[in-house]
C-alpha cells in the first residue's frame, strides 16, 4: 500500500483532480490523503460539494486580492507540517497554478516523489499565460512522473530531455469529470427563459486579460448582442473582484445579457451543452468544449492546447475588439463555418485518464508488473 497525497486549491484543479481522488479511493493498493490549499475558497468548496470530497487538510490560504507571493509563501509554509506528519510516498499536483508550483516545491524540499497531472502543456511564452507558463515549466523540472494529457504534451517534455520512461500519455481528467456531469434531461430557469434564442456562453478571468483586453472583449460581446435579436450572452463571472468590476461596467443592464454568479460545474457543463457556442480565455473550457461538439472562440493570442485548434473546434481570436466582433459575427452568420467547427472529436481524453494515472503510479512503485497502455485518440 502506498500513500498518495493530492494537493489542489483552485476551481479547475479541483474539477480535474476530483475524478482522480475518487479513483485513488477505490484502489486497494493506494491510500489517498487529500490536501486543499483553498487558493480559491467558494469556487473550490462548490466543486468539493459536487463530487462529495472531504479534504483531510485545508490550509485555507485565500485572502481577498491576494498576491502571487502571498499565495506561494502561505502554501509552502502550510504544507511543511502536513507533509512531515503524513510522510506520503508520492505527492500529486495538477496543472499550472500557484498551488501547483508551491505544492511541488514543498514536496521537493521534503524529498517526496512528485507526480504531475496535466503535464507538458506549453506556449514557451513566459508571460502568456502569466504566471502559469513558468509555474508548469518549474513543476516539470521537479516532477518524477509526468502525466501528459496528449501526445503533443509528451513530446514537449521529451524535447526538454525528460526521461522517456517518466512521461506517460493519459488523456485529460477533465473528460473523466464530464462522464458524470452531463444530463440529457437537464433544466434551468435561465435556459428555459431563453429557449428560443442562441446562447453564447462567455468565461473570462486570465490575469493578462484584466484591464484593456477584457474591456475590448466585453464591448465586442455587448455589440454582438445588440446586432442580433435572437442572441443571448450568458456570463458566469469569476469571483475575482477585478474581473467583476469590468464586467459590470460593460455588461450590466441588458435584457439579453445574463451576468450571473459562477455556475456549479454540473450547471456549467450543461449550459455549455445547450450553448450555441462558447467564447473563453479559460484553459479547461478549451478541453471540455470539443467533447460537446461546441465551437470555441479563444480570447487569447496563444494557446497551449493546439490539438483543439488542429481539430477545428477552437479558433484563436485574440482580444482586439474589432477582431472579436468579426469572429462572433462570422460564427453567427456563416452556417458552413459553424458546422465545420461543430465536430465532436475529442483530442483530450476518453474519460479514463484517472484510471491510467493510478495504474502508472502502481507500476512506478512496483505494485503491478505490467506496464499500463497509454491513451490513444480514436480516429
Ligand atoms: C487562478 C490560477 C489560474 C486559473 C484560475 C482559475 C494562479 C496564478 N492562477 O487564477 O491559473 O486559471 O485560478 O479560476 O494560480 N476569489 C474569491 N473567491 C474564490 C476564488 C477567487 O474571492 O472562490 C477572488 C480572490 O479575491 C482572489 C482573486 O479572486 O484574490 C483571484 O484569485 P487567484 O487564485 O489569485 O487568481 P486567479 O486569477 O483566480
Ligand atoms: N467552470 C465552472 N463554472 C463556471 C465556469 C467554469 O464550473 O461558472 C468550470 C469549467 O467547466 C472548467 C473549469 O471551471 O472545468 C475552468 O476553470 P477556469 O476557467 O476558472 O480556469 P482555467 O481552466 O482557465 O485554469
Give the key terms:
379 residues, alpha/beta, Rossmann fold, 2 domains, 7-stranded parallel sheet, 16 helices, globular, binds uridine-diphosphate-N-acetylglucosamine, binds uridine-5'-diphosphate, UDP-N-acetylglucosamine 2-epimerase (non-hydrolyzing), isomerase, EC 5.1.3.14, WecB-like
Explain the overall architecture.
- With 379 residues, the chain is an alpha/beta fold.
- It has 2 domains: 2-172 and 349-364, Rossmann fold; 187-342, Rossmann fold (3-Layer(aba) Sandwich), CATH 3.40.50.
- Helix content is 46%, strand content 16%.
- The protein is built from 16 helices and 13 strands.
- Strands 3-2-1-4-5-6-7 form a 7-stranded parallel beta sheet, sandwiched between helices. A 6-stranded parallel beta sheet has the order 10-9-8-11-12-13, with helices on both faces.
- The longest helix has 19 residues, at 68-86.
- The radius of gyration is 20 Å and the shape is globular.
- The mean pLDDT is 96.
- Residues 10-12, 39-43, 64-66, 68, 96-98, 131-132, 205, 207, 238-241 line the site of uridine-diphosphate-N-acetylglucosamine.
- This is UDP-N-acetylglucosamine 2-epimerase (non-hydrolyzing).
Amino acid at each position: 500500500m502506498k500513500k498518495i497525497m493530492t494537493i489542489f486549491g483552485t476551481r479547475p484543479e479541483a474539477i480535474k483532480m476530483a475524478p482522480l481522488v475518487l479513483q485513488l479511493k477505490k484502489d486497494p493498493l493506494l491510500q489517498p490523503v487529500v490536501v486543499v490549499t483553498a487558493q480559491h475558497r467558494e469556487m473550490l468548496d462548490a466543486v468539493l460539494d459536487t463530487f462529495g470530497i472531504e479534504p483531510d487538510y485545508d490550509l485555507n490560504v485565500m485572502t481577498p486580492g491576494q498576491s502571487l507571493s502571498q499565495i506561494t509563501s502561505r502554501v509552502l509554509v502550510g504544507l511543511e507540517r502536513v507533509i512531515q506528519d503524513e510522510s506520503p510516498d508520492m505527492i500529486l499536483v495538477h496543472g499550472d497554478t500557484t498551488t501547483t508550483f508551491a505544492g511541488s516545491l514543498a514536496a521537493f524540499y521534503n524529498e517526496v516523489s512528485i507526480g504531475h497531472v496535466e503535464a507538458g502543456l506549453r506556449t514557451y511564452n513566459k508571460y502568456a499565460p502569466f504566471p502559469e507558463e513558468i509555474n508548469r515549466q518549474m513543476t516539470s523540472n521537479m516532477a518524477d512522473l509526468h502525466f501528459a494529457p496528449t501526445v503533443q504534451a509528451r513530446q514537449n517534455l521529451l524535447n526538454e530531455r525528460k526521461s522517456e520512461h517518466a512521461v506517460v500519455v493519459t488523456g485529460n481528467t477533465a473528460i473523466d469529470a464530464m462522464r458524470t456531469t452531463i444530463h440529457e434531461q437537464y433544466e434551468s430557469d435561465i435556459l428555459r427563459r431563453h429557449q428560443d434564442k442562441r446562447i453564447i456562453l462567455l468565461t473570462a478571468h486570465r490575469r493578462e486579460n484584466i484591464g484593456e483586453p477584457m474591456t475590448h472583449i466585453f464591448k465586442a460581446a455587448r455589440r454582438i448582442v445588440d446586432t442580433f435579436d435572437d442572441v443571448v450572452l450568458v456570463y458566469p463571472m469569476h469571483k475575482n473582484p477585478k474581473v467583476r468590476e469590468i464586467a459590470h461596467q460593460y455588461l450590466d443592464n441588458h435584457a439579453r445579457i445574463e451576468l450571473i454568479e459562477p455556475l456549479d460545474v454540473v450547471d456549467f457543463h450543461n449550459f455549455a451543452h445547450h450553448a450555441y457556442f462558447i467564447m473563453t480565455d479559460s484553459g479547461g473550457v478549451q478541453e471540455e468544449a470539443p467533447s460537446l461538439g461546441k465551437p470555441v472562440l479563444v480570447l487569447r493570442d496563444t494557446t497551449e492546447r493546439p490539438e483543439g485548434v488542429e481539430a477545428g473546434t477552437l479558433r484563436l481570436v485574440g482580444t482586439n475588439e474589432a477582431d472579436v466582433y468579426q469572429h462572433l459575427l462570422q460564427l453567427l452568420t456563416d452556417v458552413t463555418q459553424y458546422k465545420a467547427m461543430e465536430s465532436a472529436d475529442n483530442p483530450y481524453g476518453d474519460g479514463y485518464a484517472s484510471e491510467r494515472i493510478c495504474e502508472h503510479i502502481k507500476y512506478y512503485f512496483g505494485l503491478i508488473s505490467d506496464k499500463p497502455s497509454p491513451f490513444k485518440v480514436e480516429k
